[in-house]
Please model this.
Amino acid sequence: MAEPQDWNAKTIAEFRANEGKVGGAFEGAPMVLLHHRGRKSGREYVTPAMYLPHDTDPDIIYVFATKSGAPTNPDWYINLTAAGDATIERGTQTYQVTVHEVTGADHDRIYAEQAHRYPGFAEYQRRTAGIRTIPVLELTRNPHP
Model:
Protein backbone atom coordinates (compact mmCIF):
# COMPACT_ATOMS: atom_id res chain seq x y z
CA MET A 1 0.00 0.00 0.00
CA ALA A 2 1.27 3.47 -0.85
CA GLU A 3 2.25 5.86 1.90
CA PRO A 4 -0.50 8.38 2.67
CA GLN A 5 1.79 11.29 1.70
CA ASP A 6 2.39 9.73 -1.73
CA TRP A 7 -1.33 9.11 -2.23
CA ASN A 8 -2.12 12.68 -1.14
CA ALA A 9 0.49 14.16 -3.50
CA LYS A 10 -0.85 12.15 -6.45
CA THR A 11 -4.47 13.04 -5.63
CA ILE A 12 -3.64 16.74 -5.20
CA ALA A 13 -1.83 16.85 -8.56
CA GLU A 14 -4.72 15.06 -10.29
CA PHE A 15 -7.29 17.38 -8.64
CA ARG A 16 -5.44 20.50 -9.80
CA ALA A 17 -4.86 19.16 -13.32
CA ASN A 18 -8.54 18.22 -13.80
CA GLU A 19 -10.49 21.16 -12.38
CA GLY A 20 -11.18 19.44 -9.08
CA LYS A 21 -11.94 15.96 -10.38
CA VAL A 22 -10.04 12.77 -9.57
CA GLY A 23 -10.31 9.16 -10.70
CA GLY A 24 -9.74 5.81 -9.08
CA ALA A 25 -11.70 5.04 -5.94
CA PHE A 26 -12.91 8.66 -5.80
CA GLU A 27 -14.09 8.99 -9.41
CA GLY A 28 -17.25 11.08 -9.51
CA ALA A 29 -17.08 11.93 -5.81
CA PRO A 30 -17.06 15.58 -4.72
CA MET A 31 -13.53 16.38 -3.59
CA VAL A 32 -11.96 19.37 -1.86
CA LEU A 33 -8.38 20.23 -0.89
CA LEU A 34 -8.08 21.39 2.72
CA HIS A 35 -5.21 23.75 3.51
CA HIS A 36 -4.26 23.66 7.19
CA ARG A 37 -1.32 24.71 9.33
CA GLY A 38 0.28 22.34 11.83
CA ARG A 39 -0.45 23.50 15.38
CA LYS A 40 3.07 22.66 16.54
CA SER A 41 5.16 22.79 13.36
CA GLY A 42 3.54 25.84 11.76
CA ARG A 43 3.98 24.02 8.43
CA GLU A 44 1.22 24.27 5.83
CA TYR A 45 -0.37 21.02 4.74
CA VAL A 46 -2.84 20.20 1.99
CA THR A 47 -5.17 17.24 2.45
CA PRO A 48 -7.67 15.90 -0.10
CA ALA A 49 -11.09 14.97 1.28
CA MET A 50 -14.54 14.05 0.05
CA TYR A 51 -17.29 16.46 0.95
CA LEU A 52 -21.06 16.65 1.10
CA PRO A 53 -22.65 19.81 -0.27
CA HIS A 54 -25.26 21.59 1.86
CA ASP A 55 -28.86 20.97 0.76
CA THR A 56 -29.59 24.57 -0.21
CA ASP A 57 -26.56 26.82 0.46
CA PRO A 58 -23.79 26.54 -2.18
CA ASP A 59 -21.34 28.26 0.19
CA ILE A 60 -21.49 25.46 2.79
CA ILE A 61 -19.92 22.01 2.56
CA TYR A 62 -19.32 19.25 5.11
CA VAL A 63 -16.13 17.22 5.52
CA PHE A 64 -15.74 14.07 7.59
CA ALA A 65 -12.73 13.25 9.79
CA THR A 66 -12.89 9.52 9.09
CA LYS A 67 -9.17 8.72 8.82
CA SER A 68 -10.45 5.61 6.99
CA GLY A 69 -12.01 4.32 10.21
CA ALA A 70 -8.86 4.58 12.35
CA PRO A 71 -9.32 4.85 16.15
CA THR A 72 -7.91 8.40 16.28
CA ASN A 73 -8.91 11.66 14.61
CA PRO A 74 -6.78 12.87 11.69
CA ASP A 75 -4.31 15.70 12.25
CA TRP A 76 -6.10 17.91 9.70
CA TYR A 77 -9.25 17.83 11.85
CA ILE A 78 -7.32 18.92 14.94
CA ASN A 79 -5.55 21.66 12.96
CA LEU A 80 -8.76 23.01 11.39
CA THR A 81 -10.76 23.08 14.62
CA ALA A 82 -7.87 24.74 16.48
CA ALA A 83 -7.56 27.44 13.78
CA GLY A 84 -11.29 28.03 13.25
CA ASP A 85 -10.71 28.97 9.61
CA ALA A 86 -8.94 27.62 6.56
CA THR A 87 -8.42 27.87 2.84
CA ILE A 88 -9.93 25.28 0.53
CA GLU A 89 -9.70 24.43 -3.14
CA ARG A 90 -13.03 23.35 -4.59
CA GLY A 91 -13.28 22.79 -8.32
CA THR A 92 -11.28 25.63 -9.85
CA GLN A 93 -11.84 28.03 -6.95
CA THR A 94 -9.67 28.70 -3.91
CA TYR A 95 -11.28 30.55 -1.01
CA GLN A 96 -11.36 31.11 2.75
CA VAL A 97 -13.82 29.27 4.98
CA THR A 98 -14.92 29.37 8.59
CA VAL A 99 -14.75 25.99 10.35
CA HIS A 100 -17.56 24.86 12.65
CA GLU A 101 -17.92 21.40 14.19
CA VAL A 102 -21.38 19.90 13.76
CA THR A 103 -22.78 17.99 16.75
CA GLY A 104 -25.93 16.25 17.97
CA ALA A 105 -28.85 15.51 15.67
CA ASP A 106 -27.38 17.64 12.86
CA HIS A 107 -24.16 15.58 12.98
CA ASP A 108 -26.10 12.33 12.87
CA ARG A 109 -28.32 13.48 9.96
CA ILE A 110 -25.39 14.78 7.88
CA TYR A 111 -23.21 11.73 8.51
CA ALA A 112 -26.11 9.39 7.67
CA GLU A 113 -26.62 11.18 4.34
CA GLN A 114 -22.92 10.82 3.45
CA ALA A 115 -22.98 7.13 4.43
CA HIS A 116 -26.09 6.64 2.28
CA ARG A 117 -24.37 8.23 -0.75
CA TYR A 118 -20.99 6.58 -0.13
CA PRO A 119 -21.27 3.28 1.81
CA GLY A 120 -17.56 3.34 2.72
CA PHE A 121 -18.49 5.99 5.30
CA ALA A 122 -20.87 3.53 6.97
CA GLU A 123 -17.95 1.09 7.21
CA TYR A 124 -15.72 3.77 8.79
CA GLN A 125 -18.47 4.42 11.34
CA ARG A 126 -18.75 0.68 12.09
CA ARG A 127 -14.97 0.46 12.66
CA THR A 128 -14.98 3.38 15.12
CA ALA A 129 -18.14 2.38 17.04
CA GLY A 130 -17.48 2.58 20.79
CA ILE A 131 -14.06 4.20 20.14
CA ARG A 132 -14.85 7.63 18.73
CA THR A 133 -17.57 9.51 16.92
CA ILE A 134 -16.32 10.59 13.51
CA PRO A 135 -16.36 14.39 13.49
CA VAL A 136 -18.25 16.38 10.87
CA LEU A 137 -17.00 19.88 10.05
CA GLU A 138 -19.09 22.54 8.36
CA LEU A 139 -17.00 24.78 6.11
CA THR A 140 -18.71 28.06 5.26
CA ARG A 141 -17.32 30.32 2.56
CA ASN A 142 -16.29 33.71 3.96
CA PRO A 143 -17.91 36.72 2.28
CA HIS A 144 -15.75 38.51 -0.25
CA PRO A 145 -13.94 41.48 1.33
Q: What stands out?
A: The radius of gyration is 15 Å. The beta strands are 31-37, 44-53, 60-64, 85-90, 93-102, 136-141. The first helix runs from residue 4 to 17.
